[in-house]
Amino acid sequence: MKLKRGKPKEKFSYDPQKVLKKLEDLAYKILEEVKAGKNPYFDVPTRGLSNVYFDEEARLIKLGDKLSRRYFLNVAHARKFMQTLILMAYVKRLVSEGKHASLREAYYANKHTIPGTHENTFEDQSESDPIIEDLERMLGVLREEMHITADRRGYVYGDIVIKDGEDEFNASKLGMGGWAVPGTVEHIQFPEINVDYVLVVETAAMADRLIEEKYPKRERALIIATQGQASRGVRRLIHRLHYEEGLPIIVFTDGDPYGWYIYSTIKQGSINLAYLSEKLATPDAKFVGMTMDDIKEYGLEHVTEKLKGIPPDKKGGPTGDYKRLIEELNYPWFQNKEWQRQLKLALKWGVRIEQQALANKSLEFVAKEYLPEKIREGKLLP
Amino acid sequence: MAEARDLFKEFKVQSVSEFFRRNAAMLGYTGSIRSLTTVIHEAVTNSLDACEEAGILPYVRVEIEELGKEHYKVIVEDNGPGIPEDYIPHVFGKMLAGTKAHRNIQSRGQQGIGISGAVMFAQITSGKATRVITSTGDDEIVEAWVKIDVQKNEGKIVKKIKHPNPKRWRGTRIELEVKNVKYVRSKQGVYWYLKLTAIANPHAHIELVEPDGKLIVFPRSSEDIPEPPVEMKPHPKGVMTDDVYTMAHRSKRSTVRRFLVSEFSRISDKKVDELVLYIAALRLINREVTDQNLKSQLIERLANGEVEKVLKSFGRKWKKVVEEVEKIMEKPPEKLTWHEAEEIVEAFKLMKFLAPPTYGLRPIGEENIEKGLSSILRPEFVTAVTRPPKVYSGGIPFQVEVGIAYGGEITNSEILRYANRVPLLFDAGSCVITSAVRSIDWRRYRVESFDNAPLVVLVNVVSVHVPYTSTGKQSIASIDEIYNEIRLALMEAARRLAAYLGGKYRRLYQIRRKKIFEKYLPEIARSLHILTGEPEEKIKEYFLRLIESKITVAQEGVSEVEVEEGEA
Question: Which family would the database say this protein is a member of (chain A)?
């Protein structure tokens, strides 16, 4: 199987005016309600598992249509109502001035004592973060589109040209460290793409290995290191590279419940950010490894490690890895025979296998044999 | 029976004054704090009663001066009718001479000892005579020093001066010098006693000057002078041998029969005939029957009304005995012996009578309780319940009233106990009022914890014969009828309190809500201004109008449409 760049399904869509309009429309709605003597409210899509479902057709974790109304004239809501408006005003300033702020900056910028009281607008960052999430869900825009950035994590290496504001550069000519993915990738554009697919790698160590082995150049691949759970920026970048640039996405993680969960999040989205799945998730992503079958296939039995936690048949179990395995067995998007097989084998054997375990063969084994072979032969999991 | 008579004679011979000396404790003169309170009580009661009878709105001023260690001068002055010169030794000197002794009347006085007891106490502790200054409002003021002749049970004026009264002052001022007493501002002290008295007598203006010169005023809050209590003829079920004996000897009726019919309630000629049969039957039983079982069986039959059958069971001699007893009824009442009085009371216990009349009871009244509690305690809520009169022990009328005061300047919980308007300061633990108040589940009435609530509960038990637990007359016995009446009254008052608290909390809640919304307005207005460009002041105005229209802080309650609260 030869991986090729396909046709784009989405267009570069970043438009600050759109966000501003949404903010102002909502603010006018509130103002009009008050003028009319009505108790003004925000309709906030409900957070949490109860309002999340798996859309089989789109193959995405999606937010349900449950709303909770946040009224001004409600003792339990009034403070949050105020906080919502404060952050809306803040976002308006950020976007119109073209500035970005981190979640923490957004918190500090808006924390002050309410005039005439001893009460602060925000007592803690744990008060402002959820309001920003609420705004994302209410307005249907990403935090990043509101110029509020998340933690940055992950980097990119490969032969593509990235346009970040004034700067334009090739991501294979920035040294071995590649290009660090910023908190916000909305405004990033890709004037030139000379790769056939994206390989998403869980650990930085493995990404570094592949870069050193010149894998990106030889295989015409773009390496994205997630460095653990993929950050929102990375997930959004993967999504955009797939849908806007037509690049196939292949994920390479450790062979353990945590690695598979990283894959699941990239592919289907997460429960916490279900409202963003359509912008963050990439259901077309495929999984290359590590799998339980790899252990037998490549003779890695002696470099496996035991799963952490208590197995389900032991007293107090299941906990740790076992618990997560059983959860994953029940995920709707893992209801296929390939994944059920991997998960059940892991449960049966009680072992995990790390990406780095492939170094047991030789340092270049992963770059020259394992990945090229599996990808060429299409030994990928859905 | 001759023995009993002799005993009583002996008792009569003993001077009541001496009796006082020996029984000072029983009369309330026990302990240094309580003794002082009792002195004040007797003097103030005298003043209030005198004003009541004369239809005067009372003004009572109490002054206490410290002369030395446990040595005080007590001054009580009133604007009452004054005492005519001739009566001074009588009023202050003779014990059991008070106008109410041996009258079946609801009274403040406790033992019929009254003010003479205070004079006596002063005399035996300090040796000093009591100084009385009084005028009936005519052209002279009498100043007299009164002592009690302990042997003769008589008051005597040891010194007397007359002064002109150009301003027509009217009233009485008495000054007593007492030792072995102590002024303390405690729950048993004078201050507390007067405060409680003021609550139960809102028509009185009461002042207290404490030893350190501090003036405390309990102002009048009602202009209604209570009607003086009416004497009620005693009910046969409510009398003891002593009552019957004493009443008979004072009676001016020609025969015992006439005495019984006219001086008791619910006794008719027919009832006297019945009484004769009962006494005869009792005589026969006591004389002829030795077997205790049989005796009590027969007495039980008497109580069931089978008096004629019981009599006939003794054969023909019963008629003779009845004739004997009938003779008692026809003799002059002053000839009635102690034993015969005893027989009459014994028979009364077994006979059936109509319940006694209750018209003589004088409760404080709901309105006046509320006034008293309001003006002295300054609560935010007050209510009172006066129950209809009831009867206990088959023949003694009584009436219960309660008042509840909540919040305001009240800081802790308190039970104010009264018997016939007189505060009961001692023996709270054994009192039926305490147990009845404690038996209420106050949480059902929105009072989380009675002990920690700003709640004052007043209970007044009104009766001709308040059943005290002991001679100290400071706590009321646990009689079921009284206990139940107190509870019923308390529950009714507590329901009103609960309704008030419900509304109060709702109002407080609404005010708090309003404040919450209002405090966020500056932030909201600023933010909406940034978002929409509408001037901040205008936005604030819109929101304020909204708050005003949606949240009404009114007595009637809430007009706000409470919205469903979603997950927040």
Answer: Belongs to the TOP6A family.
Q: Which of A126, A149, A172 is the last residue of a domain?
A: A149
Are residues B47 and B125 located together in one domain of the fold? yes
- The contacts found for A264-268 with CB under 8 angstroms, 24 or more apart, are A264/A328, A264/A331, A264/A333, A264/A334, A265/A229, A265/A230, A265/A235, A266/A200, A266/A226, A266/A230, A266/A235, A266/A238, A267/A59, A267/A333, A268/A54, A268/A59, A268/A60, A268/A61, A268/A331, A268/A333
One domain for residues B204 and B92: yes
Distance from CA of B380 to the nearest CA of A (A): 27
Tokens 């039995």, located at residue: A301
Q: Which candidate in A82, A113, A114, A135 is best for mutational testing of the B interface (most B CBs within 10 A)?
A: A82
User: Are B248 and B157 members of one domain?
Assistant: no
Beta bridge partners of B171: B135
- Does B120 share its domain with B248? no
DSSP string, A260-312: HHHHHHHHH--STTGGGHHHH--TT-EEEE--HHHHHHTT-GGG-EEPSS--T
Q: Which of B509, B510, B520 is the best substitution to test chain A (most A C-beta atoms within 10 A)? A: B520
Burial, B115: exposed, middle or buried (Cβ in 10 Å; 0-12, 13-18, 19+)?
buried
A80 interaction partners in chain B (CB closer than 8 Å): 568
For B83-97, what is each residue's pLDDT tens digit? Answer: 988 888 888 876 554
Q: Is residue A330, in this structure, part of any structural domain at all?
A: yes
CATH number of the structural domain spanning residue A88: 1.10.10.10
Cα distances from A318 to residues A312, A321, A326, A347, in angstroms, run 4, 8, 8, 11
Residue B230 lies in a domain: no
| B10 pLDDT higher than 80 | no
Are A30 and A176 in the same domain? no
Q: Are residues A118 and A172 in the same domain?
A: no
Which pLDDT tens digit goes with each residue over A185-198? Answer: 888 999 999 999 99
Rounded Cα distance, A305 and A313, in Å: 19
Q: Which of A202-206, B83-87, B304-308 has the highest mean pLDDT?
A: A202-206
A69, A92: one domain: yes
B227: in domain: no
Q: What is the pLDDT of residue A25?
A: 93
Domain end among B475, B492, B509: B492
Query: Residue A27 sits in which domain range?
Result: 16-149
Q: Is residue B566 part of a domain?
A: no
B564, pLDDT greater than 80: no
Average pLDDT, chain A: 89
Range of the domain at B54: 14-216
Report the complex ipTM: 0.74
Any idea what the CATH number is for the domain that residue A242 is in?
3.40.1360.10
The nearest CA of chain B is from the CA of A271 a distance in Å of 17
CB B208 within 8 A of CB B215: yes
CB contact under 8 A, A72 and B564: no
Question: Does the annotation count A157 as an active-site position?
Answer: no
What digits encode the pLDDT tens for the residues B463-517? 988 888 876 788 999 999 999 999 999 999 999 999 888 887 777 777 877 888 8
> The pTM is what?
0.54
Domain boundary residue, one of A119, A149, A179:
A149
pLDDT of B568 reads 35
Name the domain boundary from B492, B509, B525.
B492
Tens-place pLDDT, residues A44-100 = 888 777 788 888 888 888 888 888 888 998 878 889 999 999 999 999 999 999 888
Q: Residues in chain A whose beta carbon is closer than 8 A to a beta carbon of chain B?
A: 23-24, 27-28, 30-31, 34-35, 37-40, 44, 46-48, 67-82, 85-86, 88-89, 92-93, 114-117, 119, 121
Residues 6+ apart with CB under 8 A from A70: A41, A42, A43, A44, A77, A80, A81, A84, B566, B568
